[in-house]
Structures are given as structure tokens and as C-alpha cells.
Design goal:
The protein contains two helices and 35 strands. It is an all-beta fold. It folds into four domains: 36 residues, no CATH class; 127 residues, Sandwich (Immunoglobulin-like); 128 residues, Trefoil (Acidic Fibroblast Growth Factor, subunit A); 119 residues, Trefoil (Acidic Fibroblast Growth Factor, subunit A) (Trefoil), CATH 2.80.10.50. Strands 13, 14, 15, 16, 17 and 24 form a six-stranded antiparallel β-sheet that branches. It is flat. This is beta-glucosidase.
Length: 437
């Protein structure tokens, strides 16, 4: 806790003086903040420096959910002293003030150094999201988090440096397994998760990952392929809201089972409630008591699991262009054209990236070097130049034979994609190699 330095009314009313880092505005003048002792510190007869701060992991997800923050603290003075090592975290979207998450105290002799480490996980940087009376459950918002050391460090995207680091949290695990479309037969609608939370029943369209869902038998979750979020219902009542939420194996609002006999999607926690169309237009699905098969309105709950097409549009989201077969020999990244077979691809079981529009042609790379040529060639499972794998975590198309090389858009205009060294996730040009199927 921070106390005002004095009982002066101005000090009590404005204890932070519009503080930014270690600067405050006092009487209209920007100066060092007037405090008796800085946050976490007290009287000391020596000084300390911090160096070599680093994070063990900078891209976190449910499958890799911890990072270790390390920093070397050195006693720069002439006397033995103790230092409080403070670790602060700023979350995406606020609060504006950074929050103290971890701390420790070290005692060092003159000239002595010590490496200090802290572990951060979603339990540290997440926040409680439950309604009052619904228990305690933390979830971390997806986005960039800023980690800072020392009381006076200003830490944001523009000030990354020795005492300010950043990591990203991707709350959605890459969906795996078999995907289906959930088709409401009576209306010929399919369930979709077009963005963030909302779910709707809409007309079926090809190559729409937001209309595809997988069933995780281990967790009983229904996961959307496009958003990576889970179908979630938290109101056990007729008309209870249904949306998607960040997947959490411990979130009981996300447990479902599909009853093949009645074709109903039943909630496992809120017993006897099923997913229901809600309105004939399908714009607001909700929970409703599971209806008997003899009821005429049971059609509002009857879903058929339909296997979607295996053909995909390969999109570079940074530039808004899609992989396109240009004739029977070349590829390029171009603007999306509705229903164009030349922009449909299938990464088959042989790890060949096949063109739907160009007859028996596959993406082929034969020069394992930066700038190496990539083109279309007759498909052959024995042609080692045509073997690819899509990294579900980094979204890079990695060459199986030319290890360490990835498909790269080549330029913002995308007219000549090529091979390039697979870039690390921290690299500024990673966007050139991130492709969504």
C-alpha cells in the first residue's frame, strides 16, 4: 500500500501527481515524484542495478502456459544491503495501472550479483470472471502483456527495453480432431461463430472455418475451428444465453454431449437443457428444455453432424490475400474471388498441398535457400520437394524435406512467393509466413 507523504490536503487529494514512470507534475512542473520512500523500498545505504532481464517464453497458450522471468541484480555500492525485487504486469485492455504480481528480497555484499527468477502463469496474470455466487475462476484475456521491473519503469509497446519485456497470451488452443458442421435440418441452417462471442444459425457456405466445430471427448467441449473458442451456456433456464468463450477445461458451462438418437446437443452440467434455435431466423440461439421426440417443435433442437469439404482457402491475414494457382505452373497471393477453384487447396494425408483448380498440381519447392523458387508441379507422393506441414501453433507452412524453410509471401503484393528461413515468433517479418487454412 502507498501512503501520502504528509497530511497536506493537496498531497492527500493528488497522491500520484499524474505519475508516469518516476515523473510527476507538481505545481505545473514535471519533476521526480515527491515520496518519502518509493514503492516497495525503504532506507538503504547502497544502490542496486538490474541487467540481463529476459523471458523464457514469449508466446503463451493453454499448451505452453508458463514463462520464467529472470534478471540479474547487482549491489553497486560499498555496503551490504537488501533489495526488494518487484515484478509488475500490465494486461491488455487495462487496468491502466500496472499490478504487482511477484516480489522477493535479496541481500548482497558490495559487488555481488544474483540471478532472480519468477514464474508467471494465467493464474498470476488472469482475472476473476465469474458472477457473484458462481465460485472463483480466473481467465486471461488474449493479447499482449507487459512485464516490468523496478518502481520507476514505464512499460508499454514503445518502451520495451532492459527493464520492460512483453509476452502474448493466445487463449485458444489450436483446434484438432474431426470437424463437423452442426446443421439444423428443419431450417437448413448451420451453427456459426462469426466473431468473438456471438453464435448464430446461418446458411451453409463452403470453406468457412467459423461454421465448423469439433467435439473434444476428453473435456466434453465443442470447439469452433475458426475462432478456437468453446460453446458456452451459463444460464440453466428456458431462453438461457448461449455464446462462445475462451476454452477452459474447468469451465462447467462448456460441457456438452451429442445424442445421436434424438439428434440433440445436450448440456451436461445444466441437465435436461439443449441447444435450441431460439428464433426462426436463427439470430439468437439459446438453451431450452430438451423436448421429447413427439413434440412438433423438437425440430428447433435437431442437429445433424455434417462433414465439411476438405478444400481450404489459404489466407495471409496480414496482407488480406489468398494463395492462388496461376495457370498450371505458378502461384501468387491475390485478392479473394468468391467460389474460385483456383484459390482452393487441400493438404492431404501424404502432406501434399494440392490445388483444386489446377489439375493434379501441387505446391513444389526445389531450392532450399532464401528466395528459393516455389511453383506448381505434377503431384507425386514420392517427390520430396512437395512435402509440407502446417504448424498449428505458429501457422507457418514448413517444408518437410528442406528443414528450417517455410513458404513466404515474398512481398506485400504477393506476386512471387518463395522459400525463406522459418522466422521465430518474435521476428517483425513473421507476418510474411503466417497462413490460415
Amino acid at each position: 500500500m502507498t501512503y501520502p507523504k504528509s497530511t497536506d490536503q493537496n498531497n492527500l487529494a493528488t497522491p500520484y501527481y499524474g505519475r508516469v514512470g518516476d515523473e510527476c507534475v507538481v505545481g505545473g512542473v514535471t519533476t521526480h515524484c515527491p515520496v518519502e520512500w518509493h514503492f516497495g523500498h525503504g532506507l538503504s545505504y547502497t544502490s542496486f542495478s538490474y541487467s540481463d532481464a529476459q523471458l523464457s517464453v514469449t508466446n503463451l497458450s493453454p499448451s505452453s502456459s508458463e514463462t520464467t522471468v529472470t534478471v540479474t541484480v547487482t549491489n553497486e555500492g560499498g555496503m551490504t544491503g537488501k533489495e526488494s525485487v518487484l515484478l509488475f504486469v500490465s494486461a491488455p485492455g487495462g487496468p491502466e495501472t500496472r499490478l504487482l504480481k511477484k516480489y522477493t528480497k535479496v541481500e548482497l555484499t558490495p559487488g555481488q550479483s544474483k540471478e532472480v527468477s519468477f514464474t508467471l502463469s494465467p493464474d498470476d496474470f488472469g482475472k476473476y470472471v465469474n458472477e457473484i455466487g458462481q465460485g472463483l475462476r480466473k481467465e486471461a484475456t488474449a493479447g499482449t502483456y507487459y512485464v516490468s521491473l523496478k518502481y520507476d519503469t514505464l512499460c508499454n509497446a514503445a518502451t520495451l527495453g532492459p527493464h520492460c519485456k512483453a509476452f502474448t497470451w493466445n487463449s485458444a488452443s489450436a483446434p484438432t480432431g474431426t470437424f463437423y458442421k452442426l446443421r439444423l435440418d428443419a431450417y437448413n441452417f448451420v451453427l456459426a461463430n462469426p466473431s468473438s462471442e456471438p453464435v448464430v444459425f446461418v446458411a451453409d457456405v463452403a470453406n468457412a472455418p467459423v461454421q465448423e466445430w469439433s467435439f473434444d471427448s476428453a473435456t466434453s467441449q465443442v470447439v469452433n475451428r475458426g475462432t478456437g473458442r468453446c460453446l458456452d451456456a451459463w444460464e440453466p433456464q428456458n431462453g438461457g444465453a448461449v455464446h462462445t468463450w475462451d476454452c477452459s477445461a474447468g469451465n462447467v458451462n462448456q460441457y456438452w454431449s451429442y445424442e445421436a438418437t434424438t439428434k440433440q446437443l445436450r448440456h451436461k452440467t445444466h441437465a435436461d437443457y439443449c441447444l435450441d434455435i431460439g428464433t426462426p431466423t436463427g439470430t439468437k440461439p439459446h438453451l431450452w428444455q430438451c423436448l421429447a421426440s413427439t413434440r412438433p417443435d423438437v425440430k428447433n433442437q435437431q442437429l445433424t453432424l455434417v462433414s465439411p469439404s476438405l478444400d481450404r482457402v489459404v489466407t495471409d491475414t496480414a496482407f488480406g490475400s489468398v494463395l492462388t494457382a496461376v495457370g498450371d505452373a505458378a502461384i501468387a497471393f491475390q485478392s479473394l474471388v468468391a467460389s474460385s477453384a483456383m484459390q482452393l487447396w487441400r493438404l492431404d494425408s501424404s502432406q501434399l498441398l494440392r490445388s483444386t483448380g489446377a489439375t493434379n498440381k501441387c505446391v513444389d519447392a526445389y531450392q532450399p535457400q532464401n528466395g528459393g523458387a516455389v511453383h506448381l508441379w505434377d503431384c507425386s507422393a514420392t517427390n520430396v520437394n512437395q512435402l509440407w506441414t502446417h504448424d498449428a501453433t505458429t501457422k507457418q507452412l514448413r517444408h518437410k524435406t528442406h528443414v528450417g524453410y517455410c513458404l513466404d509471401i515474398g512481398s506485400p503484393t504477393g506476386e512471387a512467393p518463395h522459400l525463406w528461413t522459418c522466422l521465430p515468433t518474435t521476428h517483425v517479418d513473421l507476418k510474411n509466413q503466417v497462413f490460415v487454412f
